[in-house]
Amino acid sequence: MGSRFFIRNLILFGLLASSNMQIPVGKLENKLELDVDFLLGVTEFMGHIHGLHSITVYSDCIDIQPSIQQRIMDKFVVPVYTIGSYLRRTNYNKLNNANIRIVLFTGLNDTILVNLNKTDVPYSDHFYMLAYASPFKNKSVELDFIEEVFILLWKMSIDNAILLVRGEFKMEMWAYFYMGKIHKIELTKANSFLESLRKYNYRFALQVIDDPPAIFWYNSSEQADVTGGGNLSVSGPVGLMIINFMRHLNVTTDIVPVSGKQNSQYEFFQQQEDWRAENGANMVGGALLKYSPLVTQSRMCLLVSNRRMIPFSRFLDKLVSPGVHKLTFASSIGIFVVKYFSHRPRSFVDALFCTIRFFFAIPLPSNILNRLPLVDKLIEVFIIIFVEILLSSNISMTTSALTTGFWEPPIRNVETMRASGLQIITEDPAIPQAFKENILPSSLADLVILVDKGTYFHHITTLNNTYVYVVQSHKWQIFRLYQQQLTNEPFEIASEELCSKWRVLGMPLNPKSPLRFMLKDYFYRILESGLQEKWLHMGFKKFCEFNNLQKLPVDSADSWQPLTIEFFLNFIRAYIIGLVIASLAFVGELLHNRYRRKNVKKT
């Protein structure tokens, strides 16, 4: 990550040091002006890190001429807010813009520390610089006093702070972190914090709740270098990010699986009172907390088929308007009636076959056409034109259905979803309630079916497009790689109307963890480097391995081949059966004529 990574993180912890940029240090004299100059130099350095928009000064009964507020405004040209026991209560909303807060105090009993406790938000990102104005000149501060100051700050939930005190020969800067107890650090070099962390050989804890494919744990010693030889590993983009963060810090982490499975509400996080202070993170992916990095934006959506083919058996009733079917039926009755009453002798079978022949547009020979009654001639000559057009259309549609196929209209909104006739399946018990509460369209609540995990996983991995699925958008971004080898992706996220509102998901960290500032900065660096995309593919590969998905689906080898003879087998059978029936009928007619002739001769 480079020296800038350490600079920002160590400053966030109060570790104001860098491998290529030194903090200004001044030798002590009897004049207080040098202490203020040093403080301003540190403030300027922090402004490059945080951005210097405004500064809040906590000061009470410290007489400096000119005032420190005036010197800050002259040097940085930014608004300065002052809090003191003798001043009017400040508008606390304005304090949110003050990333840097300077506290001038004369001792642990200074009343300004009481105001500091009242105006602060616990575990905030604000950076505090406490400058101790000692009443004793040329006297260094005892370590016990430094520890007492840090204990007081810890009780106020202020851990992002440094303490500026007089040393024996120069100004000293101290910071602290809490791991079971207060640990003081004198800021002398860039890696002071990490050295202290490793010195105590502290083991961090990583709590993991299964939320595949974003994060999941499995039995393996692949990450033994991080877990200290443990037999558990974590994968998924979020899990790999945390493991690599711990590997980067060169610290040991215990993976602690949490029973249960994450649901769509992402509320599987409760900060317990006895939560271990050294926990690095509780990987649930939800519960947006101020001191947590914002991992992603997500929402619940319907996963719909991108290309759903109409079955061949349904293409006529799906593609042809119901009015055409009604018109065809009515005209068939009319033609049958004409054929039946216009011929002598009247025969039901002859009229039926003539009607079928007519709708197949089989023309009659001229000599037969000339002998037809007038009404029959009009039908054969004029209406046959419409029948031939209709027949040509049917032949064209049948050809398309047999070759390229016809596709269902895309599902874009609630109306097309209901018109599709598909049901919505999910494995998450919280999803039906989300439909009832109109988080997802409540008008589709009657289509939701709750199934077990195995059934859901089978349908979605076999790319079964006879159902619609409910997915989290950030998890689908990973699982979408499952169809990466297909020319046309079978599934896609539906439109806005079939999705819930966006929500921000974060990693709820223990607010007392000394790693919380470093992890946030590490995450932002990951976004800039593009490693997230790499871990996404690595996490998906491990997910497939863990779930025995050995091969990704590919396009069928015969998807663009001509129709085989097996496809027409049923039509060939119908043709053969018709030939057999016609042959039997012909033989029957011969036998019947022969029998009738014999009877005629006898008579």
From TrEMBL:
TM region(s), chain numbering: 571-591
Key word Glycoprotein present: yes
Main location class: membrane
Subcellular location: Cell membrane
Keyword Cell membrane tagged: yes
Signal sequence segment: 1-21
Gene Ontology CC annotations of this record: plasma membrane
Keywords (A to Z) from UniProt: Cell membrane, Glycoprotein, Membrane, Receptor, Signal, Transmembrane, Transmembrane helix
Membrane topology, record value: Multi-pass membrane protein
Protein name (Swiss-Prot/TrEMBL): GD25339
Species this chain originates from: Drosophila simulans (Fruit fly)
Name of the gene encoding the protein in the UniProt record: Dsim\GD25339
